[in-house]
Predict the structure.
Amino acid sequence: MSMLLDWWAAYESTLAFAIVNAFFALSTYAVMATGILSFATVAFAAVGGFLGVQLLAQLGLPLWIVLPGSAVGGCAAALLVSVVFLRLESHWLALASLALILITRILVLNAPALTGGVNGLSVPVEAPFWLLLVLLASVSVGFWRLSVSWYGIAARAVREDPAVAGSLGIAPKTIQLIGFAISGAMGGLGGVLLAMTLQFVSPETYYIPVAFTMIAAVVLGGSYHWTGAIIGALVFTALPQIMQAVVPQVQNVANGLALLLIMIMLPRGLIDPRAWRIRRALRDARR
Amino acid sequence: MAHSPRSARCSPVSDTRPILALTGVAKSFGGVHAVSDISFDIAHGSVAGLMGPNGAGKTTVINLITGLLQHDTGRISLDGADLSGSPPQEIARLGIARTYQNVRLFSGMTSLEQVVAGGFLRRSTSMLASFFGTSSARQAMKRTQDEALALLERVGMADRANVLAEALSYGEQRRIEIARALGSHPKLLLLDEPTAGMNAAESQMIGRLLHELRDGGLSILMVEHNIRLVSDFCDHVAVMNFGRKLTEGTPAACLAHPEVQEAYFGRKRTPPSESESHAQRARAHG
Amino acid sequence: MQLLLEQVVNGCAIGALYGLFAIGFGLVFATLGILNAAHGTYASFAAIAGYYAVVYLGLPFVPAMVLGVITGAVLAVIVDQIAFQPLRKRGAGMLGALITSIAFWMILDSLAGLATEQQSLSFPAGTYPTWIIMAGSVPLPAMQVIAIVSLVVVTVAIHWLITRSRLGAAMRAVGWNETAAQLGGVNPRLVILATASLAGATSGLAGVLGGISTNNVSFTLGEGMLLKGFAAVVVGGYDDVRGAAVAGVGLGVAEVLSAQYISTSMRDAITYALLLSFLVLRPRGLFGRTSFMRA
């Protein structure tokens, strides 16, 4: 029993970060599932994060208002951004979303009244672990329903071939707009949860490293199924911890090598429904 | 020749109101005229053919009708309503469905899922209801799936319903694509080389299917190289070359036309080669 | 007036480095469809190689610079062949390549940190030219002249290569459609290697010159360049080298002038404000062209 408690004490924070990263990964997945590579999640997270921290610290609102508030804030930011972004062709959209992160950081730095500027803000409330778990569970139910609903079917069609989807009566831009809205809500929620887990936010909290972490998590886990985002976030949060324990001198080299190897061996990620289906078809054929 | 008795009906286009009318349609890509001044009508409940050598602009015409490309001048109308400027999804909603020259099925989906996706316009439930899984949404989804199965049956693919589309042969994929297009219950079906890569028996099967569909009230435009198929199954044919219409009329009359003879038989009759169809596609890209 | 002119020259020189870097970044993006996060590390390693060449091998400036450029090119080809080629074979698209480039970025950044023992090194005085040309009353220091001349030469050469030569035509064709390129009888593998090494070489050149003129030879050199080069690519348009070059210089000048006349803290704000307005108002960049949706 005491061993179990020790283990828990050592790994609780890693797991908490894994769950927070899962929200970012799901946010990225939400747009990727409609065929868009976007890093804008980080900007939505900043909106949700700073908004949530203000609601908590300045207004002292309870969590059951703050969390949905951050999600709505992120969602609104996403809708605003997508009006411009969805006019861009896919490569440009990816570049623009990276630029959005840089711009967000400058805005955060230059609005110290809201964000604490360079010094950042401390966050008075910590997110309890059970709350993270409950939130992830409910969001998972949401993504499961999305994947089996007409939205999910339409999103898959748009992702695979937007022109064909259009000729089946599916409006690609509408589907992608919904994707952005979901991404914004998840990003906003993830942003405030990250703030509450770190108990501190600054311009560096929502910056390029988060973008690369979440995109790597999604692609590593598998961007063709929502569970891939969660698995990827778990692996990608645990990996640096393990590497630090095993090869502390060159942990970043080891991280990079691991990521490289996984991507080359499994370019569609760890969770790949198409690979399962092909394997099943082969098995059936042999029988 | 396996003439179906129906194909003798071959109504002259002028005496019925056409379902689709192209009037003086033109499209150029950076100065290259892919389609110039094309006009033709498709009669209600007929199988029309669009013929011509590779690179004649046939696929561009299909892309213009379905809104994937916008025409520069002229008018395209469906049942009298102008389609100019409408996005593809709107044109699909008005009742036009299509297949593609180089089969474009969705990667990672089974045959059944492809056809279900084709039923998007007839889902008769909102995306929100479907998200919450209300009982009416579940029933509607069940109906769509049953209908998709029936369509697979119709193209002879019911036994491959749960097979990944990538695992099917080219001819089978074409049939899935037709079933997917039928999923929206279109008024007008556009087929871009529906029998390319099929053997003679499969081609005949597609031809018979088209007549069944026509007799069920569907109008069809098919781009086809297979002269046998065109003369067996089309009621009316237009022939294009170098982006222009050479002639139109009954298949027999068209094939007898001297310019068609020259365009088709004047040079060596070779099956469409890969490079030519690529060139045509590159042209459609602009 | 004197100060303004001097600052404009400064800005052009810094901007020339951004432009040089951006040309390669944009070239890879336009031709190979890869958003390469590791592109900055080529500059870092080129600067480190140049530094080692002058300090430990005692090479003069020009051979050291050439060595840096070659380092950048070789590194770019190695990264391409290990990280991108296996994905290309499977048709995994730009997403997988982005991730493997992030992986290489982590690896190379970390190795660059080890190579300089986590310090920022600078080229010893006397290992690079320090002559000054006077243009009227405005002094033009050697490194600034070299940076600006390099940008002009590289831009003209690559623009000529892309628009006039057979290889360039093939590069454009690969950017549009790989099948079309194959039909043109060009070996796509050759195009890929040529593009990667050109991009690595320009990044390496920017790295060596930047390492000297900013007195910073370390892994942070490439990171800084990546962000600025990225901005230049967005403003200039990634499918035209002239755009990247002009935008790089423009950003450099804007940066130096805003630091001089507005405030140092607003320097980055101005860069990114420019970036944002271009995204909204002219999303294809200065020289961007319109393209058709795949029909």
User: Anything to note?
Assistant: Chain B has two domains: 16-95+186-286, 105-185. The longest strand of chain B covers residues 18-29. Chain B is about 40% helix and 20% strand.
